[in-house]
Design a protein that fits this description.
Helices cover 39% and strands 14% of the residues. With 117 residues, it is an alpha+beta fold. The chain has a domain of 60 residues: VC0802-like, CATH 3.30.2130.10. It has a three-stranded antiparallel β-sheet with strand order 1-3-2. Strand 2 and strand 3 form a beta hairpin. The longest helix has 23 residues. The protein starts with 13 loop residues before the first helix and ends in a 5-residue tail after the last helix. The mean pLDDT is 82.
């Protein structure tokens, strides 16, 4: 049988490469799972928090309907008049809110029941 010499299968550290790579993969997996399942942070939006009338930034309340349905009717009246409006459920009840630049037009439209000229 012919002898071709010693065939090197690796250096003296090759026995440690497999376990080190497995531990590195396991460490990365642990960090990824800890990030994905940490508490207090969610990728799902939290439900909106109710506030007082003045806690809605630049929006100004122009109507205080007694029910949400009545508020939606008022909001649609303003929308039909070309005025951007939103209906917010505040701690003080439903409020129809508009931007400050549209406040006078909105009050006029609600007072007369028709779009301002």
């Amino acid at each position: 049988m012919p002898h071709h010499g010693d065939v090197p299968l690796g250096n003296s550290y090759s026995y440690a490469v497999g376990p080190i790579m497995a531990l590195a993969f396991l460490g990365i997996l642990i960090l990824l799972l800890r990030w994905a399942f940490r508490r207090g942070v969610s990728v799902v939006a939290a439900p909106p928090r109710r506030g007082r009338d003045g806690e809605y930034g630049l929006l100004v309340p122009v109507a205080s309907p007694s029910t949400y349905v009545e508020g939606e009717m008022v909001r649609r009246t303003l929308e039909d008049s070309g005025i951007r409006a939103t209906l917010a459920q505040t701690l003080d009840g439903p409020r129809v809110m508009v931007w400050p630049t549209d406040e006078q037009r909105a009050r006029e439209a609600l007072r007369t029941g028709r779009p301002p000229e």
